Amino acid sequence: MGRSPCCEKAHTNKGAWTKEEDQRLIAYIRAHGEGCWRTLPKAAGLLRCGKSCRLRWINYLRPDLKRGNFTEEEDELIIKLHAMLGNKWSLIAGRLPGRTDNEIKNYWNTHIKRKLLGRGLDPQTHRPIGSRPAASMGAAAVAPRGLSFIADAPKAAAATTVKMAAESAEEGNGSAASMEDECSPGLNLELSISLPFYPSKPSSSSTEASSSMTTTTAAATSDSTAAVAAAESAHKPYTQAICLCPNLGFQRSGACSCHGMSDPHAIRFFIPLQGGQHVLD
DNA sequence: AATGTATTCAACCGCATATAC
DNA sequence: GGTATATGCGGTTGAATACAT
Questions:
Q1: Three-class SS of residue A272?
Q2: What are the boundaries of each domain within chain A?
């Protein structure tokens, strides 16, 4: 069977965009805003696939894009984020204002990979080249200082992404911040979900903020994100405890004991530790 | 100047996930 | 709950450009 194509390929242009096409796309999005990419090409008078329009806008035409060379600070930030998140380019791009996932991905493949190789580090693992590959969680012994938890990058990313946030926005956070300091000193990821408090109808800016936070955590926790989204859409405070263990693959192991939690403001998650141990917070 | 090789990056493709019905 | 559709993401490609011979 298979899925129908995203657009009618027989009548769409491909390849490089012309100036006229760019102008049409910019004009349309200025007038109508982003979104509904499938219908946009027709509405804007473009013979392009919706996906192509979206990509062109996001990667090239968006007015907030920062063109030009990456700075040394950006380089280091990308390296640190990649060590923690892996090839999650969109998450990494979320921490670099004005940069796109595609741009960072290209830059990684053309520059940073070589830079790391020059330092004697494996670009994928961030460990010294020639060091033994991690057997389960034993990589801690060979990982560079501060990156000892990356033996299982996806799960580490998921856990790192989820910062405890039962407290309100004004309150500080202790454990997660210290974990970041420990993992990458000086790097403030703020890849966190918090429990936004809606005393009344939220302003647009707060909605955007919580939306972006939801985006950064989507990969880690679809179920909990759904819970957050549901509460957001209803503009209500959360009334259910959110368990992130299934997203991290622990529930079946019996490690999860979240069910039966009485605290309705709690989110539970694992903090990866050196040596493969995990602790429930 | 001509040719070959390496590098860059915009764009495409297919898959995964989210959402609507 | 199941299916169809839309959107987003990451991997890959290939044309354009830069550089070396």
A1: strand
A2: 9-61, 72-131, 154-280
User: What is the per-residue DSSP string for A163-223?
Assistant: ----S-TTS---HHHHHHHHHSTT------------SSSPPHHHHHHHHHHHHHHTTT-HH
Residues with CB under 7 A from strand C: A 1, 3-4, 6, 15-16, 35-38, 50-51, 54-55, 87-91, 101-102, 105-106, 109, 215, 219
Q: Among residues of chain A, what percentage have pLDDT more than 70?
A: 42
Domain A72-131 in CATH 3.40.50.2020? The answer is no
Highest mean pLDDT among A32-41, A105-114, A152-161: A105-114
A229 touches strand B (CB under 7 A): yes
Q: Does the structure show a pLDDT above 80 at A169?
A: no
Which is higher by pLDDT, A186 or A91? A91
Domain A72-131 in the same topology as domain A9-61: yes
Note the pLDDT of residue A23: 92
Please state whether strand B lies within 7 Å of residue A70 at its CB atom.
Answer: no
Question: Which class is A9-61 in CATH?
Answer: mainly alpha
